[in-house]
Amino acid sequence: MDKSIPRRKSLGKREFTEAELKELRTAFDLLDRNRDGRVTPSELQFMLGKLGIQLKDEVVLQLLRSASPSGNELLNESEFVTWVRKIQNLLPDDVEDETSKDLIAAFRVFDVERKGYVTKNELRAAMEMMGESVTESQLNDFIRSATTDKDGRINYEEFARQFT
């Protein structure tokens, strides 16, 4: 019995409504498996795994360190809500459709320096961060097939074309 959770509109740069805060509290409770009021690296890793997202342990630690003001790799409910708000604020205001928002978020994972394009080295680093091994030949093939202007860099439009 598969109960799909409906996707909701992006929260954008506004404050959360009470209903959205309730959803975030529920999400936090799902992450906090031992109910101690803190999300640990292993709890986050478990949930990501259930979502089909495989990240190396050090990447999960990095995520939690960046989300926690103290950098202690533990996240309480308040810090979790603040972290989600920061993630939502990365989305541009003028994008309305969910697929475009997802593609922009994925592109930004690779475009760490926010230059508007991704190089082969950035693509390699992001793939390694996700635990995916990739050969030089595979990288070259992807860059070659993705870039329409043959500049060796993938801009957002080229990136989106590969996934739509």
Automatic annotation (TrEMBL):
SMART domains: EFh (SM00054). GO terms for molecular function: calcium ion binding. PANTHER family: CALMODULIN LIKE 3, MYOSIN LIGHT CHAIN 1, 3. Residues 19-54, 98-133, 134-164 form the EF-hand domain. Keywords: Calcium, Metal-binding, Repeat. The lineage of its organism: Eukaryota, Metazoa, Ecdysozoa, Arthropoda, Hexapoda. This is EF-hand domain-containing protein. Gene3D superfamilies: EF-hand. GO terms for cellular component: myosin II complex. The keyword Repeat applies.
